[in-house]
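Hi L., both proteins are below.
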Amino acid sequence: RNPLFLLVLLLPVGESRAAAMGSPLLAGLIAVACLVASSGSVTRTLAPRKNVLFFAIDDLRPILGAYGADYAISPNIDKLAKRSLLFERAYCQVSFCSPSRTSLLTGRRPDTTHVWKISSQEYWRQVVNATSLPQHFKENGYVTVGMGKVFHPGGASGNDDQKYSWSPEGLPYYHSPIENRYGPQNRTSIAWAAEGLEDNQLPDGQIADNALKILDELKVNRTEHGEKRPFFMAVGFHKPHIPFIAPKKYFDMYPPQDEIAVPKNRFPPTDLPYIAWSVWPFFHTVGGVRQYFVGTQCFKNATQAYTERCMMPINATQYLRRSYYSAMTYTDAQVGKVMEKMEELGFGNDTIVVLWGDHGWQLGEHGEWGKYTNFEDGTHVPFMLRVPGVTDDGMRTSALVELIDIYPTLAELTGLPQPKLCPPSSQNVETCVEGFSTVPLLHNPNQPWKKASFSQYARPLSGLPSIPGRPPFLKGTDESVMGYTMRTDKYRYTEWVGFNHVTAMANWTDVWGRELYDHTEPTEFFNDENANLVDKADMKEVVAQLHSQLQAGWRSAMPAIHS
């Protein structure tokens, strides 16, 4: 890393930075920076560490104005994006809540954590002795406070990893008292406009209110009680996760249902292997959707799955898309409240802000609803990083990045001990990562970066119960086949192969399906990947090269600056 660049990151902003830049002190610090450049420790002693405000948003795909979705109403996140480095091509490691969040928050990939689904039997600390991201901050002098959905709640995270990740001042961990219900009226529809309800009568509004309270307390502790520790505050919002509920005023911001555009690609890609198909778990059984598929075998029989009869009707598609957008706008408003309070209390110049969605989400594209796939729409996520004094004018990068990169990025930006790259076997290594700091992209957003990003999804989890022409799935596991997918500059390539969930080892000779999608033309978000080209004669050499690259894995795709 360039220690002088990191030195500037840690200086105060505004007039105080200008004064510092011309001071004799800076000259001395520069000399120190040059002396310790090789040690990487300069950021730990130069200036007080910055706070971190960490927004996690459930099921948020990049339908934001900042990502070019002009039909989305997201003024507060867009405002944040204008003062951030926006990552145009960021991807999750698994298109499912718990494994995605576990990977991000431990800095390790799913085959290391052994977390591929939501289960109390797949809590990473049962397998790998990994220091979590907030734990790393806590153990290095930060007050860490979390609320809402940061880790996946419950047994899958050891109850929000309370024992390890959060400071005593942040406990008991805050969840909205109505988080496990569909709102005060406890309706069971998949989507509805909550008429007469205020923001804080639904869970995310209550989480936002709690964030405002905690910020006030942090300010009082700092100004009246001499608290010197910086804070790491994680705020996890639930919407737009199903059910799509928001106060009616957010629904009223959007055009009537019959004016809502439907996907251009309502049907599965041509030549899609059955193993790749998701049966929309939970989604098709909920009120508001269930009635359309009564008496069908759409979610059990592969020969019916791709038919018109098994696609969501147009009117229902419009209803659900409008509801998703409205729920997203509701969450955007909560982000705005927290950001406004942070600025009001004077924390803005001293706080790094990161905002991310845990995976993509399909709203009828390819006939799919929800996450649970390896498509672009299932794995592509919003991710933005605000660093005061560095990203104030807004920056963008098209570099391929992954959510697993957030851990080392925040550690480097705040001057914490930088986790080393994990060895191939890291079960007994407390602090290491399998991602790469994106800090160099703050210096040059257009520099060459990763050769590919990597995601994966297990089957029969969320998929068809049987695959024509293949033996039955192994009993007792949802993870007998693993779909490994890789996004390069030009292509998305996926192989579905036999998998041993005990050893987390793939059998690359047991192939259940392959996919190749061409992204050489500019990506049109949510309308790509409509033809599987893997068996086309003119793609044979491309497939051979991508097959080798996929098996070589993420270690062979790292940015040159990290190699």
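That was the first. Here is the second:
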Amino acid sequence: WYQRRVRVQKEKKMAEVVQSHIEEMLPEVYELQQLGILSSVEGKSVIKTRTDFEYKMRRRISKKQDFLRFIDYELKLEKLKQSRILQLGVNDVSEGVRYRSLQRIHFIFQKCLRKYKNDVPLWIRYIKYCKQVSSSRSLGLAFVEALKHNPGCVQLWIMSAKNEMEVNKNVSAARSIFLQALKFNSESAELWTEYFRLEVLHVEKLQKRRQIMNACDKPNVPAATDDFMNFKTAKIVFRNALSSINLDSYTLPGFIDVVNKLEINGEDLMKFLFETALKQFPDSSFLWVSLAEYVMSKDVAKAKSILQTAYTTIPTFECLKDIVMFMITFTGKLGDVQTMIIDFMYQGLDKLSIGNPDTVIHLGDKMIANNLTGFLSEIFEVALKQHPRDKALWLYKIHNLSNDPSKDLENALAALPNDPDILLEYLTSLSFTDPAKCKVKWEEVIKESFAAPLITQFLQYIYLSSGLKDARKAFQDIQKWHAVPEKAIAALLNYEMVDGTSAEQVCYLFTILTTNFNKAENWKNYLDFCQKSCPEQISSVLWKCRNSLTETQIANLF
């Protein structure tokens, strides 16, 4: 009784609040009707819809979707109102009518965000709305609340700092936001890059301003210190970034791009970036290649020298791959790339350390695509010495680079004697070069357990080389050694239906297939065959099918 009474009181209170809000809307709707912006029917519809949404917002278990629908409804209504005001040429609209709906949308957003404080996309949507309606005060409060509840969201910090820098023109506030953000997200490369961008662009603006003032003969204009104008603060930011994040192909381009987009001379800053980074990460091939790319636009010989230094400093295959990829990209500027690649490889091929064999295959694809195959087989020789049991390396060399496939296949089989893929490649090659030896080898390996994946190929080989009769005998022998896969039974069934004359043999194989692989598709094929070739057995097969499949499978089958 008590709980029911409390619930009734809460419902009464909620109804009173909703009624109060609806009454506040009435003057606005009445004025819109008087001005001809809304008809009486539309005004009643607006009141009814808003009442429904107000109740949904205040129920005990409210849903985020209800808030969002209310916001979308108000936005559409505001758009309709503005378009009709322009269409009708109404000028005497009160401020209450002009701004009340905007205030209501702010209110709905804020009420929703009080409940869903950690919903970052919702905060971003509200921030964008504040910018759209030029509500600077609400925008500032939104950033404060959003960052208070989501300090780990880098995107929000960057948006807040950019708003201070680009809209409010307050560099100190933007810098303060970045410093605060880095306390929570010190390992964010994106945050460090944007902070670096802020300091660099600030100096660029000051230098442009100084140039304009000097051109106007205003020497008394106060100027920043020379150290600051030489990007001292930006250099400090970059140095601190290096101690906090790992510099790689994802982080460094952001810093380089900032300097490249400068409209003033940034060579000194770019030189500082590379020198500082290479001191801390001397084994980063990406850094060396990036430096060569930057230098190449001014001095191609120096770029080649940098690549040479990189390969001497880092004698690894990963470094060689990055250098070769760079050469391929800038073939037109570097000249005879193939000769350069061969020169590089001759210098340290015997010392080359290959950590990941997949990088060798990736490089091989790129070099073959660009007709740079010289010395590629030697790279694979080195790779196979260091990774003799890597199947992908063997198959790539055999398919793309081998001058003597038979010899390479024998070497691959010696390294990987039990690998089905290598074995199949070897036997396929042997069937063309030495059929007698191929047959002996097939009969030798098919009994082994590792040859189970090759049963289908073995039956195909026997069928093509010796005929259906021997394929039947081979199938009977295989059943003694292995669990015959579905594809192998299906293959022999196909051979029987193409060349065979015995319906009994086909039914025997279908029985094996449906017993071991109880699938609706297999039963359907069995029934189709019986209907065409042996209709006297169809009732028996149908009875077995009904006992083997589920009711759903049978319904789908028929």
